[in-house]
Amino acid sequence: MLCYRIKGVYKKLQKKEYYLIKQSIPYLKTTINKIYTPCNITHIKKLISFMTGTIEVFLVSEEDGKREDLTDSLGNRNFNIYEHKFELFRTITLTYSNYYHNVYIIFYAEKGINKLNFKHFFMNDLIYISQGWTDHFSNSLFFSNIDEHKKKKNYGNKYEEFISNKYLDLGYEVKNIGIKKSFDDGGIDIIARKDNNIILVQCKNWSMSNNYKINQKDLRAFVGDCFLYLKDKNLVETKVSYHYIVSHENILTKSAEIFLEQNKFIKFKCIPFEDNKSPILK
Question: Taking every annotated instance into account, which residue ranges of this chain make up the domain Restriction endonuclease type IV Mrr (predicted)?
Fold first, then answer.
């Protein structure tokens, strides 16, 4: 009896934490799985390796809600939906049991799984045994997503053309890199030239949502792409400007706002697509 009480006190004093694994794919419902500690990190890594999409991983304290971002080491923020075939995405549901209750883990994958890969899962200080899984995908769903992708791509091209015309009105010669090369544009949508001035432009026709927020990494990537483009160019007497233009307000994360405040050479501007009178950046 004494041992039971001591064990109970020990359990109560344990710091209750869990790994929050958030998987996001545009047009599909976001999946969220909680894996409680103590657990086997190797099992978690294996699980994440089968997931596709943007994978964010946090270690969360259930006591005070504080979270440690582990995405850089365990997840993936560099997923591009348009590099993949929609029809290959599967919804997989893993079922585990510890003889008292079941645990369900649901995620998207591009390939099927083998039961041997997930025979056991150590979590919440217990060994859970696999009770099987389901694996399915819907052609009709993904065909409609392809149509949605074409629609969004068309919106992006129209916005880029809209911004290009503003530079043309100011007397610049314009190259629409984004429209011509799509995802091979090197991170630069528009190159505008006039006299000894060159402007490198990135434009985003995104509305505010959880899936489409501009963060510090996006801005850093744009700067890096610009420097890469300029490194072999002979621009000794040329003034180079960097313009980041969006169509909707409130689309920046806090980290992006701080980055722009620290790097004022990047000119950030919101120009609504519908407003033909919006001024372009000088």
Answer: 156-226
